[in-house]
Amino acid sequence: MTASLDPQAQKVLDLGRQAGEPPFEAGTPERARRAYLDCLPSLQGEREAVASVRERSIAGPGGPLMLRIYRGQGAPALGASALLYLHGGGWVIGNLDSHDEICRWFATLAACVVVSPDYRLAPEHKFPAAVEDCGAALSYIQGAADDLGIDARRIAVAGDSAGGNLAAVLALLARDDWHKLTAQLLFYPNTDAAQTADSYRRFGEGFGLTASTMAWFRDHYIRSAADIDDWRVSPLKAESLAGAAPAFIAIAGHDILAGEGEAYAQRLGADGVPVAIKRWPGQIHGFVSMGRHGPASRQAVEAAVAAWRKFDSAF
Asked: CB of 70 within 8 A of CB of 52?
């Protein structure tokens, strides 16, 4: 039996209906980006204070890549843990400002350094541009550990939705190409671009993110249908997940991505990867970015930090 909607989720859905905005797929990516940013003040709460916020441009695979760097209150000047946070938005929308609230929560709650890259977006930059940019950001963090005041052996990766997809992909790539990560913290991640999970049928309409919008995002991101089976687009399709960093996965019960999040957690566990899964049965997709309307948003980040601490004994 499906749980009833959380009041926070119901309030957000009501606001969306009252606004009467057309779905993203009814317009251009540029219009979707503007609409997304315009709605954030009605969803997100006040920005939490951190010790410092700065931006830095590094050389990326496609040109300059902007990073926003947060140092949390209480983070040590040297040897701090670090988190690479990858914003969601279907690989098409979102930027450094859209997930500023979540990055600040992580920096404060974990007393760590958070780095968030302004990776290239589709359709102007299709797969694998976003993966390459996020990989470049991770390589930079590890190479600049002394300058950032972090311990290169204590880096985790996190993200929500499409950002959770990118974080999961980096956690698999890191098995071979980078130092091992301490954790992957995934909020309602996209793990299977085939979009055939039963949750697409159950929650495809009326719960915020729709099946048609998700298909629109995917089709802007991939170069052709062949990319759907590439594990760097669909990490659930990887031959093996063994050796990936320990995972925390947050699931929203009324979310078209719930099924593939659950499936990814099961695959990780079957392949010997430690997994902590936390379910919010009454929540909808994107609830971690809805801090103005209830405590569940921050509580999800608190749960992710708690899991990260358990995974990283040096915390």
From this structure: yes
* Residue 177: predicted pLDDT: 60
| Domains of the chain by start residue, with CATH | 7-311 (3.40.50.1820)
**Cα dihedral 134, 138, 143, 148 sign:** positive
Active site residue 161: yes
Secondary structure of residue 115 in the 3-state scheme:
strand
Residue 107 backbone zone (phi > 0: left; psi -120 to 50: alpha; other: beta): alpha
Catalytic option among 81, 98, 161, 234: 161
Q: Whole-angstrom distance between the N-terminal and C-terminal Cα of the chain?
A: 39
pLDDT in tens, 114-137: 999 999 999 999 999 999 999 999
Handedness of CA 84, 88, 94, 98 (dihedral sign): negative
AA letter at 105 = W
Preceding omega of 64 cis (within 30 degrees of 0)? no
Q: Can you give the pTM of this predicted structure?
A: 0.97
- Residue range 297-310: mean pLDDT, rounded: 97
